[in-house]
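Quick illustration for those who missed Monday's session on complexes.
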Amino acid sequence: MIKLQHVSKTFSVGKNKIEALKDVSVEVNRGEIFGVIGYSGAGKSTLIRCVNLLERPTSGKVFVDGVDIQSLNKKDLLKLRRKIGMIFQGYNLLETANVYDNVAIPLKLEGISGDEIKARTEKYLEIVGLKDRSKAYPSQLSGGQKQRVAIARALAHEPEVLLSDEATSALDPNTTDSILELLLKVNRELGITIFLITHELDVIQRICDRVAVMDKGRIVETGSVVDVFTRPTEAMTKQFVHDEARFRIPPTIFKDLIATGKLVNLTFIGESAKDPALATMAKRYDVLPSIIAGGIDQLKDQSIGNLLVHIKGDQGKVDEAIHFLKSRQIVVEEVSE
Ligand SMILES: Nc1ncnc2c1ncn2[C@@H]1O[C@H](COP(=O)(O)OP(=O)(O)OP(=O)(O)O)[C@@H](O)[C@H]1O
Ligand SMILES: [Mg+2]
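Prediction with magnesium ion bound:
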């Protein structure tokens, strides 16, 4: 559906050159929710803006539905942009127009007939749950409601793809959840492909099928959300996972645990959660496991359990026990610092 091939983008600011994108290749399949995660300045917005040519790559190609979009003339590019909706962190609503008109006015500018405008505006305000607020002005709405208007406005053009540039970054956790639910519904019920960028791991975990991790203009890792976040291979991905998803243990307690045994982080995915591996291990190797911390992350289609376990016992037995855990369907990571 969307394919970026070897895309680079260099900005010139006075004499300085900023390489915002360096040889980025990424492919988003029709019907999926694809997320790009990275810290501030990684080049995420620049990347997503290349998809509708709000930003033109310095080199490389961008294909949408197999069409090399940099070869399109102005008219065809406008047509193509109608297939691609976009939402932003800052909503970009018309402050002087009410909710209904925020959705209807862009349709009017596109030359759509009056009846169709009414039908679509009502339909999409209903879908985002704001039909009863159509007379309200943006200043009378909460952040979450404003983002719902922006989503309705994007959907009213009946796009095939929705691009989202940090759409939930300005919202509190509960409102973020409700907007993510709405994006899931848009993807499932309307079949719209979603390409989003974010710096929040939670957004990726909750709704994305696949993810790319970006660092300093490059994509360093790509894969299914489950794979990338349970078996991160790149330092940047590990940093995201450890920053946000793992347990923090007070240093004095940590020191004590390391001195008296081994600490392992266990990740259980899907069926492996039902495997009584810890009990079996304790029995078979005569070691004493204690659970120090635990939690469950809900991904789009499955849950992942995390346990931080302290294993005490004869040194050789403890090593054998850890080896045993590694032989099960569990991701085992020894924690030593
Ligand atoms: N129009 C521009 N002119 C000059 N430099 C730019 C321009 N747009 C982006 N940059 C630079 O390109 C780099 C990547 O910026 P970009 O906005 O894509 O990052 P980002 O990952 O979206 O960051 P954030 O999470 O803060 O939004 C930054 O160093 C930024 O200063
Ligand atoms: Mg950005």
